[in-house]
Structures are given as C-alpha cells and as structure tokens.
C-alpha cells in the first residue's frame, strides 16, 4: 500500500516528431529560421533530421509525408525568441509571411500578459508560433 502512495516523477518531453514531404527543404527551413543545432540521429537512412531544443528536448523531422495537409492553427509548435522585432526582420528577409492569431497578415498579437506572438507555416504547412515569452 505504501508503494502505491509514492508519487512518481512527472514525465518529461523527449522529442516532437514532424512528418515532412521534403526532408532537405524542412531541415534547411528549421535550421535557418530557428538556428537549431543538428544532433546525431541513429538511423543514418536519409529519412531523419534531429535538432536539439535544449532542455525542452528534441525536434525530429521525418521524411515520408505523401502530401502537404491543411493544419489547424491551434495545433502548432511554439518557439520563444529574445526579440520578436528582430525575428520578424529575419522572416521578411526570407520572404516568409506571418500573421497574428486572428489571421491579419504582417500583424503581431499582443497577449493580455504582454507577450507578443506571430504565426506562420513551415514548408509542409505546419503552424509555428514565435513569441517573446518574458
């Protein structure tokens, strides 16, 4: 009975897997947009790219999606940056369109807690949020 009362430690996030149609395009996108460092992956089959997300875990890109799908904005990955303004400049230089939560192109959402957010899609249409979580 005493063993059942013991609380187990909370699970921690290990990785997020994103299924992509073009691994090279997706790898180049995530590496250049987010400056993510690649880490070794054990398969060496040309179908995987792994990135470190620091203490948050890893991002695994997996080649094999047959087509791009329409994804709901509510299902998104979120990255925090120190300067949303500098990040927006980077997106503009890469011709990557972004929008606020309601969908106004080139606009920024200002949350009630003061956090600024933008949303855009990766090459496969997966939604991404970037914020200046402070």
Short structural description:
Residues 12-133 form the VOC domain. The protein has helices spanning 2-5, 23-34, 84-93, and strands at residues 15-20, 38-39, 48-52, 58-63, 76-80, 109-110, 116-121, 127-131.
Task: Report on the architecture of this protein.
The protein is globular and about 45 Å long. The strands form 2 sheets. The protein has a 4-stranded mixed sheet with strand order 1-4-3-2, with helices on one face. A hairpin with an 8-residue loop joins β2 (38-39) and β3 (48-52). The protein is built from 3 helices and 8 strands; from the N terminus they run αβαββββαβββ. The chain has 134 residues and is an alpha/beta fold. The model has no long low-confidence stretch (mean pLDDT 95). It folds into 2 domains: 1-67, 2,3-Dihydroxybiphenyl 1,2-Dioxygenase, domain 1, CATH 3.10.180.10; 68-134, 2,3-Dihydroxybiphenyl 1,2-Dioxygenase, domain 1 (Roll), CATH 3.10.180.10.
Keywords summarizing the entry:
alpha/beta; 2,3-Dihydroxybiphenyl 1,2-Dioxygenase, domain 1; 8 strands; 134 residues; 19% helix; Glyas_Fos-R_dOase_dom
**Contiguous uncertain segments of 5+ residues:** none
Helix content: 10-25%
Q: In total, how many beta strands?
A: 8
> Beta-sheet strand percentage?
25-35%
Strand numbers in spatial order across the main sheet: 1-4-3-2
Name the average pLDDT.
95
Rg value:
17 Å
Q: How far apart are the termini? A: 44 Å
CATH topology of the largest domain: 2,3-Dihydroxybiphenyl 1,2-Dioxygenase, domain 1
Number of helices: 3
CATH C-level of the largest domain: Alpha Beta
The main pleated sheet reads as: 4 strands, mixed
SSE string:
HEHEEEEHEEE
CATH homologous superfamily annotation of the largest domain: 2,3-Dihydroxybiphenyl 1,2-Dioxygenase, domain 1
CATH architecture of the largest domain: Roll
Number of domain modules:
2
| Dominant shape | globular
By secondary-structure content and strand pairing, the structural class works out as alpha/beta
């Amino acid at each position: 009975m005493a063993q059942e009362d013991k609380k187990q430690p909370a699970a921690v996030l290990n990785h997020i897997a994103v299924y992509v149609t073009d691994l090279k395009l997706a790898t180049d996108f995530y590496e250049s947009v987010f400056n993510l460092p690649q880490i070794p992956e054990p398969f060496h089959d040309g179908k995987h790219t792994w990135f470190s997300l620091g203490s948050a875990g890893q991002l695994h890109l997996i080649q094999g999606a047959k087509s791009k799908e329409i994804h709901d904005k509510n299902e998104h990955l979120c990255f925090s940056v120190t300067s949303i303004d500098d990040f927006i400049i980077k997106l503009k230089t890469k011709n990557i369109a972004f929008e606020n939560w309601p969908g106004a192109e080139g606009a920024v959402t200002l949350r009630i807690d003061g956090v600024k957010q933008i949303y855009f899609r990766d090459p496969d249409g997966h939604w991404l949020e970037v914020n200046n979580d402070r």
